[in-house]
Write a structure and sequence with these properties.
β5 and β6 form a beta hairpin. This protein is globular. It is mainly β and 183 residues long. The chain contains no helices and 19 strands.
């Protein structure tokens, strides 16, 4: 398991016993982590609009170093494309060569992304408290809001992370900045 922290500009690697070591340093607001199918770690470096690729041994290379990609969140789709939510309220799809293509726009602080086996992308909206679902072709629908004490749907308070768990019936876990994890 790994964590990125914007405050210390490091990426930490955690062992099963909970101990941690610094895996990568010298970043400028490290946001967003994703693992590809080969075990390479991708880290969004918000401060300079770069995305770095790290091998399991810690070797670093620049995957993307262009404009307009101040990363909030990342996930891989089943085709191996890196999906990146940005501070410009876009989701970009990066092919394996690091070339970005706009996938979705007009979003609201896409702080969390997840992908399922069918290639659908799930995106948590910080301000609206909802989760959008995108088909592989980019069609957007509202996937969820949380119902509390009634049948009325209310926003999820400040969603900050989502994780799709590949079970027989997939489950979506959501971390909220104000409440416990929702399932």
């Amino acid at each position: 398991m790994g964590t990125a922290t914007g405050s210390s500009d490091n990426v930490y690697k955690y062992a099963p016993n909970g101990s941690s070591t610094v895996f990568a340093t010298g970043l400028s607001y490290a946001y967003g982590l994703a693992l590809d199918g080969s075990g390479n770690l991708f880290v969004g470096n918000w401060g300079n609009s770069a995305i770095y690729k790290y091998t399991s041994g810690g070797s670093q290379s620049t995957f993307y170093g262009g404009p307009n990609v101040q990363t909030y969140s990342m996930t891989f789709n089943p085709l191996g494309d890196l999906m990146v939510g940005t501070s410009s309220n876009y989701i970009y799809s990066f092919n394996t060569s690091g070339t970005p293509t706009p996938f979705a726009s007009g979003l609201n602080s896409p702080l969390a992304l997840a992908s399922d086996a069918a290639g659908n992308i799930y995106q948590a909206n910080l301000s609206t408290g909802s989760i959008n679902a995108f088909t592989p072709g980019g069609t957007k629908t509202t996937f969820s809001t949380v119902a509390v004490r009634s049948l009325a749907a209310v926003p999820i308070p400040e969603p900050s992370a989502i994780l799709l768990i590949g079970l027989a019936i997939p489950a979506l876990l959501l971390a909220s900045r104000r409440r416990a994890i929702h399932r």
